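Supplementary Methods S3. Input chains for the assembly prediction are listed below.
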Amino acid sequence: MKWRIIKCSEQDAYTNMALDEAIAEGILSRESDPTIRFYTWKPSAVSIGYFQSMEKEVNLEECEKQGIDVIRRRTGGGAVYHDNKGEITYSVLARKEELPKSIIESYKLICSWIVSGLKLLGLEAGFHPINDIIVAGKKISGNAQTRRSGILQQHGTILYGVDVEKMFSLLKVGSEKISDKIIASVKERVTSIQDQCKASRSQVEEALLEGFTKGKEHYMGEYSGKEKKRAAVLAKEKYKSREWNFWR
Amino acid sequence: MIGYYSLKVPGGKLVNAEVEYSAKITSVKITGDFFMHPEDTLAKIEQAFEGLEKDFDAGKTEQKLEGLVKKEGAELIGFTAKDIVKVVKEAMK
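Predicted structure tokens for the full assembly:
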């Protein structure tokens, strides 16, 4: 299997999620190679998990005031604030036979690529089931997976800098969510690369690229014309729609 | 009436239920930060509660949901059928 690697680029939330789906369709029809892509969100955005309620999780009024996009992902998991400068997001898309059948094992494998990248920056990172990566006992990366039509998609974020106050102004976090956490406050249980080392953004991108591609047959590629065209349609008709974003 | 309940599964995910009911359950909506593959199974789980008496048997319903999950070849990550039954019950208290 030869992976296509797409270097970090920035798009809006709708295009980012639509590109994942367009690539998944391309892999299914054998027109696209298995892909690892890196991206950021412009403008900054809040994404919610597939099973979450937009109204219960997101402070929509504040998002609108701050010019933050809101979107539902097609993966489960929780609500995430994607700061334009504060994180790097990745997606891995491949036929599910190419990755471990066990969901936890596949999380573990893909997360080990992130762990390798972080280790290149001198960070002692580790996989923390179900779907997190931690450094110094704190979460630095959250990940989410879906398997539809035989295609496995995992995407996740690696925090570069974290603005907890801003995050909390945009998300509605219930007390139930944090009640059983070992450390009480989010500030104490979330960290970022900037908190842990002095690496520049481009150094982080390079390290992640190395971590994700090490030992894999791969080539540096771009989105195909067909993928971009399909993503534009999906962004407009699905991911920007109220029907999709507020269905729960 | 509409009832709502949230459960943070210890070591797992958050599961919420919004239940519309009178003597019987009219509709159930489950939300949360959990994972379920395939995702479409959730709609079938929600439908399984429709028409049940308000004081339905938790054990039997749990078995019914487990059977449904098995039939669909579904995997629930971060919560169980028992947790779903619990949030639905609690939402009507």
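Residues 103-120 of chain A form the longest helix (18 residues). Chain A touches chain B at residues 49-53, 56, 74-79, 103-104, 130-131, 144-148, 174, 176-177, 179-180, 248 (CB under 8 Å).
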